[in-house]
Amino acid sequence: MDQNQLNDYIPIVGLSVVHDLQVIAEKLNGKTIINVNSTAVGGGVAEILTRMIPLLNQLGVNAKWDVIKGNERFFNITKNFHNALHGVKVDFSQDDFDFFVHVNRENMKIMNFDADIFLIHDPQPVVLIEMKKVLGKHWAWRCHIDFTNPQMDLMEFLNQFIEQYEYAVFSAPAFSRKLSIPQALIAPSIDPFSDKNKELPKEQINSIVEGYGIDLSRPIVTQISRFDYLKDPVGVVKVYKLVKPYIDCQLVLAGGGATDDPEGMKVLEDVREAAGNDPDIHILFLPPSSDVEINALQRASTVILQKSLKEGFGLTVAEALWKEKPVIAGAVGGIPLQIKHQYSGILSYSIEGTAYYLKQLLHEPEYSRELGINGKQHIKENFLITRHIRDYMLLFLSLMNKEDIIYL
Ligand code: UDP
Is residue 1 part of a domain? Predict the structure, then answer.
């Protein structure tokens, strides 16, 4: 994947935004920042880091990315953590907690900790904070999860680690918790030049989409997501079935797995069962590095759904809005940051509600277009990678210079 030069962003975000980045980056010159998460591919965190690290490097900030290792048992436990932090009831044993800590400590033995600042993403590697006692340096915990209703016994277990960090960073105000450490709000972002979001020629879009057996002459309704219960893909099939008798549309459910998400195959089976043998439902299990394919599917779609039941942010919403698509999405987690109801998209609360709005958007292309145009503007102003990098660099500076006020 080609990496864009910083100057390429000027026509989109303006000269002053890029200039500010250079000024802030100078203050971080010579500093090393290590990001740690639990998967190199799949899901929003990997998506963001893939684009952000090279840009930070271009700015002269020595940013790196490391991934913790774990076996099947570890990722089953952390997927259960993920579900429980999203409010699903899960029972954990002391053994689960001990094993989780043990795998983190095994990683500590083999990881390279040569850095000034550590940005640790999500709960999977949270125990790495134990290295602070050995190394000192600066540590922030970056949480991408929808934390509106976490399971409390798990939260108490994790808090003993989280509260050793200097900062906890959340994606949306609603996720902020009562913690003894300062909290920062940094929303995620998309990169307009990534393969996932760059402009594509019409012929390329059409040939990719037709290659999946999708008919370009009829409306296409799409949800792109890992196959995860919290993305409610079965709910999406139900929505489609409510709309199909009225409008001859097609449904595309496209997604892959993530190496730290062992539940995907089971969810995929459930979706296939719910879909039955309707030839107008296209369930696409995509390999990693399907960025151009996802881009084409989003661009060819008439309406994009993101019917999540919980959502840290929902990069797929930003990706669709950037492409001026009308989006109907669950009013959960970080999604309302991106969609102002009936202005830059539609927020929905149920299968029936989603079906109602889907019928409306399919019937009213002008209204749909307006939502898409407003949506793109909103993403441009708030959720592009340049804003995200700026926020992170300011966080790094405030970690290093806690007493100093930072002037730009
Ligand atoms: N994605 C992908 N392949 C897939 C499914 C999703 O590349 O098969 C991408 C999607 O386009 C988005 C990210 O993975 O960029 C998912 O981020 P999001 O915040 O929507 O959800 P998460 O998976 O992190 O819960």
Answer: no
Extract the tokens encoding 381: 């102003």
Q: Return the ligand 1 atom nearest residue 316 CA.
A: 20
Residue numbers of the domain that contains 21? 6-189+384-400
- What's the first-to-final CA gap in the chain, in angstroms? 32
What band does 3 get if pLDDT is binned at 50, 70 and 90? low
Q: Which of 212, 182, 176 is nearest to 293 (CA)?
A: 212
Gap between the Cα atoms of 388 and 192, Å rounded = 13
- 307, 316, 335, best to mutate for ligand 1 pocket (most atoms within 8 Å of CB): 316
Long-range contacts, stretch 130-137, CB < 8 angstroms, 24+ apart = 130/104, 130/105, 130/161, 130/164, 132/164, 137/113
- pTM higher than the cut 0.85: yes
Classify strands 32-37 and 117-121 as parallel, antiparallel or unpaired: parallel
Widest Cα–Cα separation across the chain: 64
The pair of structure tokens assigned to 107 is 């990683």
The domain tally of the chain equals 2
Whether the predicted pLDDT of 202 surpasses 60: yes
Q: What is the pLDDT of residues 14-66, one digit of tens each?
A: 999 999 999 999 999 999 999 999 999 888 899 999 999 999 999 999 999 99
**Are residues 372 and 394 located together in one domain of the fold?**
no
CA–CA separation, 175 and 145 (whole Å): 8
Asked if residue 329 is part of any domain, the answer here is yes
Q: Are residues 341 and 389 in the same domain?
A: no
Which amino acid type is present at position 117? Answer: I
Cα dihedral across residues 33, 38, 39, 44: positive or negative = negative
pLDDT of residue 270: 96
Segment 384-405, tens digit of pLDDT: 999 999 999 999 999 998 655 4
315, 322, 325, 339: which to mutate for ligand 1, most atoms within 8 A of CB? 315
Work out which ligand 1 atom sits closest to the CA atom of 285. 8
Identify whether 405 is part of a domain. Answer: no
Ligand 1: residues within 6 Å at CB? Answer: 43-44, 47, 196, 224-226, 255-256, 286, 290, 294, 313-316, 319
Report residue 187 as tokens. 């929303």
**How much distance in Å is there from the Cα of 59 to the middle of ligand 1?**
26
Within 10 Å of residue 172's Cβ, how many Cβ atoms? Answer: 22
